[in-house]
Amino acid sequence: ADRSLPTAVDVVIVGAGFAGMYLLHRFRGMGMSALVFEAGTDVGGTWYWNRYPGARVDVESLSYSYSFDPDLEQEFEWRERYPTQPEILAYARHVADRFDLRRDIVFRTRITAAHWDADDARWTVRTEHENAVTAQYLVMASGCLSASKLPEIPGIDTFKGETHHTAHWPHDGVDFTDKRVGLIGTGSSGVQSIPVIAAQADELTVFQRTPAYSLPARNRALRTAEITDMKANYRAWRQAQKESGFGVPTPTATRSALEVSDAERSAIFEQAWESGSLVNLLTSFNDISTSQEANDTAKRWIHDKIMSIVKDPQTAQDLCPDYPVGTKRPCLDTDYYETYNQDHVHLVNLQREPLIEVTERGIRTAAREYEFDIIVYATGFDAMTGALTNVDIRGRDGVSLKETWQAGPRTYLGLGSAGFPNLFMITGPGSPSVLSNMVVSIEQHVDWVTDAIAHLRAQGLTTMEATPEAQDAWVDHVNEIASHTLYPRANSWYMGANVPGKARVFMPYAAGVGEYRKVCDRVAADGYDGFVLSA
Ligand code: NA7
């Protein structure tokens, strides 16, 4: 145990990603003592861990950045439209330096348990190194896509070559030169890394369970003029972000995909495809995410694109998804589909050729054994709940969060959960989080939570807890909103479908960040309606 750590603070924050860093900054500004625990050796969260080749954000840099400090906005220079992982990590490190954050962050330290003590009205937080710290408030800023997941296939430990998960990439990189590489998973991590690995490897075989919809990113260096322009207009832009659906300002579509001619519809899809923006595609018409028929037009159009790019007809067909566009997170890529035209790149469709096991030499499917030097797992995360339920969180009367959420997460606003006083979640299940520009959602949550705690302190109150009634109503509302969309029609990680045994419920709030913000603001204005505040 580390004896230099304090044994009691006002707030414990779990995670030093974008959420944890901003929380620390805000709590300090309120004169509170806060301690951050971080498993990694540095700040950055997602951008610290996911160092796989080709890793980039799919939201433009000038939008995917903090808005809370105008000087920070003015001084940081983004270089690319869609920055790479090293560039975003450099930004996180810059923020940590600028606000002197590291002195209150305990690195290399995972939280194992957090138990509520009703008598003291405090949380006792335990670390993997046997330290215990008590805190009045506990804020889980541990990420939505941070509990990584290996595939459930036998023999994973038997492979004699190198293995890497995209979310645990070695800091000094992986050399694929002259190597035969097998890669499992075609979500964003797979789609981004496949072209880069293919450029180096001798042979690349991709194992695909479900194809992704992917749009060419059209990434490029930012022009000086556009940076200057953005810096001059940041305030208006930030306001538009806050009011938007996805946290990225876009004109509202007014027409149905079904009310225009085929030629006009194609031209509009082509424009979205050329723009390199996922949001442009998803908002090209007003019914892409709600009408199966409208969505089918987008689906067919993208299928035609894939068929026109990929030369081998079977491979092309295997790459065409059959679920509605946007119901699994779409990807932004650089040369993804084109990569399959290279002779040394092969696609194995696991729906036709099921995966049997990992062997000493490689991967065996129902058809044959493939031999590899390196296996890359781009198999994703136990999304939204994994990082919360991996910690033994116990609220009032010793009730376990994990057990309480067995049939699916239950939160009020995605910010708190009944039975867990003074526990707050940043971008928790039941909030828009993963359906949005994450930085916009993070800042809104951090502002809301820190304002709520400031309110408690100003009123001489000490605890805050969601009521079961407010929570039930919120869970129903989240489901109700989802039921008007096509989201529940895909086996996605939004639905918990990628983790065997996980409850199938649509976890994010799909009404958009602008609508959600209004609800949160109203709750606060009504004296934190739906929460019990007490002394
Ligand atoms: P994702 O999007 O969850 O992708 C994981 C991929 O791995 C996906 O294609 C999965 O297929 C596949 N997978 C997972 N388990 C298996 C098994 N057991 N067998 C075969 N294939 C499997 O994670 P990413 O890291 O790519 O991206 C996460 C998010 O980060 C992304 O959405 C962006 O928001 C940024 P499946 O689709 O489950 O059939």
Structure commentary:
α1 runs parallel beside α15 (438-458) and α15 (438-458) packs parallel to α17 (513-525). The chain has 17 helices and 20 strands. The two termini are 33 Å apart. The chain has helices spanning 18-29, 46-49, 70-75, 85-98, 188-200, 224-232, 234-243, 262-275, 278-282, 292-309, 313-318, 336-339, 386-389, 401-404, 438-458, 468-483, 513-525; strands spanning 8-14, 34-37, 105-106, 111-117, 122-127, 132-140, 162-165, 180-184, 203-208, 214-216, 331-333, 345-349, 355-358, 362-365, 369-371, 374-377, 392-394, 423-425, 463-466, 531-534. The strands form 5 sheets. Strands 1, 2, 3, 4, 5, 6, 17 and 18 form an 8-stranded mixed β-sheet that branches. The protein has a 5-stranded parallel β-sheet with strand order 7-16-8-9-12, covered by helices on one side. The protein is globular, with a radius of gyration of 23 Å. α1 (18-29) links the parallel β1 and β2. By secondary structure, it is α/β, with parallel strands linked by helices. The structure holds ligand NA7. This is NAD(P)/FAD-dependent oxidoreductase. InterPro entries: FAD-binding_Monooxygenases, FAD/NAD-bd_sf, Flavin_mOase-like.
